[in-house]
Write a structure and sequence with these properties.
The complex is a heterodimer of chains A (481) and B (533).
Chain A (H helix, E strand, L loop, with lengths): L12 H18 L5 H20 L6 E4 L4 E4 H28 L5 H18 L3 H19 L6 H32 L4 H9 L5 H18 L7 H8 L2 H26 L4 H24 L4 H22 L2 H29 L14 H4 L1 H15 L5 H15 L3 H27 L13 H19 L2 H10 L5
Antiparallel strand pairs in A: 1-2
Chain B lengths: L6 H17 L6 H25 L8 E9 L4 E7 L1 H20 L8 H20 L3 H10 L1 H11 L5 H34 L6 H5 L5 H18 L8 H8 L2 H26 L1 H27 L4 H22 L2 H32 L10 H4 L1 H15 L5 H14 L3 H26 L16 H19 L2 H31 L26
Antiparallel strand pairs in B: 1-2
The chains are: A mainly alpha (481), B mainly alpha (533).
């Protein structure tokens, strides 16, 4: 008789809440003529808060569930929180955006919620197939969200591009998984780990690992697999770009680190060298390309590529300190980048008409608070104390130095010195130049202001008093090592 | 550690409270904003005077130490303290605070609120650098001060090239400081691995004998960061641009305090942490310093813009500071510290004076002026005194510093001293020549005829500086005495540590060894309360 595996619904309760809320929104939305988007937003926000609550017990757990398809531990807990933060902030910034664009789309929030559920499975996945299914749930939702601006050819182009390249990278991932299965006879991370720890290493396994790595590199937008990023980030609606740049990136890194440290740890020597090259290329190209951008969304896209490079440095460090550095970095980056994209959304106004750097001229005079917030986000991205971004870079670089990668860190800090130029350029536009024509006023909304205030406060707070959050991060990675 | 004094924290963060107060003030009520800023700057100065009067000039130990864990797991602490070396730099910073506020009273008319916030923010960063005794904390303050300075130059600067100057300043500084960050981390981990103590605490790191091979690279990184800040030749190219484009008070703060952060960094961090590498490099660094002295003077001579001239004179003066420091003699080092203060006072004053001329005529070209002494006699007096102080006339402050430096250096590098001394002569040439062209002769340009002489406010700005210029010149002991124990101890410790590292390396090559046998005096904290016994 086939044994029925234990069912542990509490463990996946956050994802269930998000999915149920998505279905409810879908049904409710059908019956509302006007203001469906607002209702959808409220339901999703409530779901996010509930999921936060449901996620809390995961922190103390460390167990595989559902026949070891997923693993419930502090790592999952931490990333679930990140996902929920990203979701919550995106919901807050999207409400204003949808109203501005005159789009009463409740489907927008449905897709966001489903993407969130997919992300949660991806970070908890203890089996390559679970990770893949989570990845696809997430990706398909985000493809559609990218193209949600049906009237904008750019948005459609971005969606198509993203779909094709995303499908391509998913294919690579799956192919890699298949080869690994062929080599080891298992798709579960523990099974893979056992196989590689026993010292067996075949060509097939090696190629499988390589393809898996490329698949992940696509998802985290590491050079040279970054080509889709600038176009997609530019074409997608600003709040979604923010969501992609933090949420999707964070979970991709979460799964990346989990797979490589839990199951392929025995091969660390092999993949660290590949990552070293990827990280250097990513940091250099991301930062250099960002220098010459005129469009702020493209600039932030390249900056997010560069940040992927810094995070890779944490993976290369290969120690618990490196991974917990990544966790803290992603936390800092989540708030910083979502805040920055919130402002990009606000300044963009209707139809994203103002997404060029020159549109930021005179912002310091017209909207001092907004400009100050943007400056703080940019300083944090540039890694200037006392912001969260500085502590993030500090943790990652210190982990790398501890593992002896001094040259890598020197390349990292030099490229990050170059990044100061383009981040400060925006500050310069805001405070030191004035616009040719007075632009229209910016329309604030309570939800948007709330998102920005939360981001600013947290970016500064966890930058000045990082101890608690650093400890959280290092606790959360314990189960991985 | 009973009876911990929180004075240093108060000094550091008082301006921050000022910023918070300013945030609630209507941006249109300019005078209220100015008065509040003034009030906080004055309060800050008064508190720092309390520190001065409670300061024990007989000991080399760190005083007013505060120590609180900040990020405990990494050994990062919130540790503050001052000794005779940082005392006067701290005082200089707080002393200039109210002066710059007064100086920009009428100069800055747009975005007054933001300007005042920047000034106060800058003050936090600068004071923080001088009082912190933890590498991480130091780095945070060091970087923080970039932002307000960037804004000062970029927003209120000279419209033509302010953006270029602002970003150049930031990029130069940040490249150096990020490499320093790498060095800090390498030091932290390798010291931790070797001794088991992971700490950013400067006084603890002092006690480690670092292998010479490590010292070289670490010193190089620290050297780059500080040399850019000082700025030493050939890393000085950001300075003339930043100075010329910055608003008057921006230049004053930049020259008087910001550049001292570089020289202070050498004394507090680069030399005592890596004495072997520093002493090996002394010859080269002194060479660069001498080149800087002469090059700065020569380039200053041909400037047509008064502000640029003063800026290049800074390069020359700071060459003296570096020369005296790396001679590693008591006189040299004392002269170097005195010269840091002097440069802050006289160059600060000269920038203010150039600013006053600029406010009246909206030009700083020397050729536009001539015969100003007839129109502005009071102005002429002040200008003359500060010019002479900058040249190093006996009886004024510049002489004391330069004399001590030359005296201290002669024992070690006689050739360099000879060349450096020529810098004093060149200084007389470019300063007096400029003074002559601007102030003496007939009033050739009709635009200069109706110029108003100095207002009461402007006189009030310069008088305090004048007092100290004369005081240091006539009776330098007030300033030298409190720093003497610290300076002597500094040189002793550096020598001692240097020999210990050499001995260790000679015997078994195993440096790093927890150097518990170096009982540094600085690690014994003397609290103000202990002093009475």
């Amino acid at each position: 008789m086939i044994q029925v595996p234990e069912v542990f619904l509490e463990g996946i309760l956050p994802a269930i809440i998000l999915s149920v809320a998505g279905i409810v929104t879908m049904v409710v939305g059908l019956f509302i003529r006007k203001g469906a988007a607002t209702v959808g937003g409220i339901i999703s926000a409530a779901a996010v808060l509930l999921a936060f609550y449901a996620n809390a017990p995961l922190r103390a757990l460390d167990k595989p569930a559902f026949a070891s398809l997923i693993s419930l531990d502090g790592y999952t807990w931490f990333f679930n929180i990140l996902i929920l933060i990203a979701l919550g902030m995106t919901i807050l910034t999207s409400l204003r955006y949808l109203a501005d664009e005159g789009m009463d789309l409740y489907e927008y929030f449905v897709l966001l919620l489903f993407a969130g559920a997919g992300m949660m499975f991806m970070v908890s996945g203890n089996h390559l197939l679970t990770i893949f299914i989570g990845l696809e749930t997430l990706s398909i939702s985000v493809y559609v969200l990218t193209g949600v601006l049906s009237r904008s050819p750019r948005s459609s182009e971005a969606a198509l591009k993203y779909l094709i390249l995303g499908a391509f990278s998913s294919g690579l991932f799956l192919y890699g998984a298949a080869l690994l299965y062929g080599a080891s006879g298992s798709l579960g991370l523990p099974g893979l780990a056992k196989y590689f720890q026993s010292g067996s290493f075949t060509m097939m396994g090696g190629v499988g690992m390589g393809l898996l790595l490329v698949g992940f590199a696509f998802k985290v937008a590491a050079v040279p697999f970054h080509m889709w990023t600038p176009d997609v980030y530019e074409g997608a609606p600003s709040p979604i770009t923010g969501f992609m740049s933090v949420g999707v990136k964070a979970v991709a890194f979460a799964a990346f680190a989990r797979v490589f440290f839990e199951s392929l740890n025995a091969l660390q020597v092999n993949w660290t060298n590949i990552l070293w090259v990827l990280a250097v290329l990513t940091m250099i190209l991301g930062n250099l390309a960002a220098l010459v951008q005129d469009n702020i969304k493209r600039m932030l896209a390249y900056s997010s590529i560069a940040h992927a490079g810094y995070i890779l440095v944490g993976m290369i460090a290969g120690t618990a300190a490196g991974i917990s550095g990544i966790l803290y970095y992603l936390l800092a980056y989540t708030f910083t980048n979502l805040g920055a994209f919130g402002i990009v959304t606000l300044v963009g106004r209707k139809g994203e008409a103002n997404v060029y750097l020159d549109d930021y001229r005179g912002l310091g005079k017209a909207h001092p608070a907004l400009a100050l917030a943007m400056s703080i986000f940019l300083f944090s991205l540039a890694g200037i104390p006392p912001t969260a971004g500085f502590v993030g870079k500090f943790t990652i670089f210190s982990a790398a130095i501890k593992s002896g990668y001094i040259w890598l860190v020197i390349i990292g800090v030099l490229t990050s010195a170059a990044s100061v130029f383009y981040y400060f350029r925006v500050v310069m536009k805001m405070y030191m130049e004035s616009p040719d024509v007075e632009p229209d006023g910016i329309r604030f909304s309570p939800s948007m202001s709330m998102a920005l205030v939360i981001s600013v406060v947290i970016v500064l707070y966890i930058g000045i008093f990082p101890t608690t959050y650093l400890n959280l991060a290092s606790e959360s990675v314990k189960t991985l090592f | 550690m009973e009876n911990v004094s929180y004075l240093l924290s108060l000094i550091t963060f008082l301006p921050l409270i000022g910023i918070i107060v300013l945030l609630f003030i209507n941006p249109q009520s300019h005078n209220t904003l100015r008065w509040i800023t003034m009030l906080f700057m004055l309060a800050d100065f008064v508190v720092s005077l309390c520190v001065y009067f409670q300061f024990d000039p007989t000991t080399a130990a760190m005083q007013f130490v505060e120590n609180k864990p900040w990020i405990k797991d990494w050994g990062i602490s919130y540790k503050l303290g001052i000794d005779g070396i940082s005392l006067f730099l701290l005082l200089l910073t707080t002393f200039l605070g109210p002066i710059v506020v007064l100086a920009c009273w009428e100069d800055i008319k747009v975005r007054v609120k933001e300007f005042m916030i920047c000034l106060l923010f800058l003050q936090v960063g600068m004071i923080g650098v001088f009082v912190s005794l933890d590498l991480f904390l130091f780095y945070v303050f060091w970087e923080i001060m970039l932002i307000p300075m960037y804004l000062l130059i970029g927003v209120w600067g000279n419209p033509a090239r302010r953006l270029y100057a602002a970003i150049k300043f930031v990029l130069y500084t940040i490249v150096g400081s990020l490499l320093m960050l790498v060095a800090i981390l390498v030091l932290y981990f390798s010291a931790g691995k070797a001794t088991g103590i992971y700490t950013f605490d400067l006084l603890k790191l002092y006690e480690f004998a670092i292998p010479a091979s490590y010292q070289f690279w670490l010193f190089l990184a620290f050297f780059l960061a500080f040399a850019i800040k000082v700025p030493m030749f050939p890393f000085h190219t950001w300075l003339p641009d930043a100075h010329t484009e910055a608003p008057t008070v921006g230049s004053v703060v930049l020259a008087a305090v910001l550049l001292k952060m570089g020289t202070y960094g050498f004394i507090r961090y680069a030399i005592p942490l890596f004495p072997n590498a520093a002493m090996d490099a002394a010859w080269w660094i002194c060479l660069l310093a001498v080149i800087g002295i002469i090059y700065g003077a020569w380039v200053a001579m041909v400037q047509t813009d008064m502000k640029r001239l003063v800026a290049f004179s800074s390069v020359s003066h700071l060459g003296f500071v570096m020369l005296g420091m790396f001679a590693m003699t008591v006189q040299g080092l004392e002269g170097s510290i005195i010269q840091m203060i002097n440069h802050g006072l006289s160059t600060g004053a000269l920038f203010l004076i150039v600013g006053m001329v600029y406010e009246r005529r909206h030009t700083r070209l020397i050729a536009e002026f001539g015969g100003l002494s007839r129109v502005m006699p009071i102005f002429a007096v002040f200008f003359m005194i500060f010019t002479l102080s900058s040249i190093g006339l006996p009886g004024l402050n510049g002489f004391v510093g330069e004399f001590l430096i030359l005296l201290g250096t002669f024992k070690v590098f006689p050739t360099y001293t000879v060349f450096a001394a020529s810098g004093v002569i060149f200084a007389a040439v470019y300063m007096l020549w400029m003074f002559q062209r601007v102030m003496f002769g007939e009033v050739t340009n009709p635009k200069n005829e109706g110029l108003e002489d100095m207002s009461v406010r402007e006189i009030a700005v310069l008088i305090p500086l004048l007092v100290f210029v004369v005081w240091i010149g006539v009776y330098p002991s007030t300033f030298i005495k409190p720093m003497e124990p610290s300076v002597k101890n500094f040189i002793q410790q550096v020598d001692k540590k240097k020999t210990i590292v050499q001995d260790i390396e000679k015997s078994n090559g195993q440096a790093w060894a927890a150097v518990s046998n170096i009982q540094l005096v600085t690690s014994v904290t003397v609290q103000p309360s202990d002093r009475r016994y």
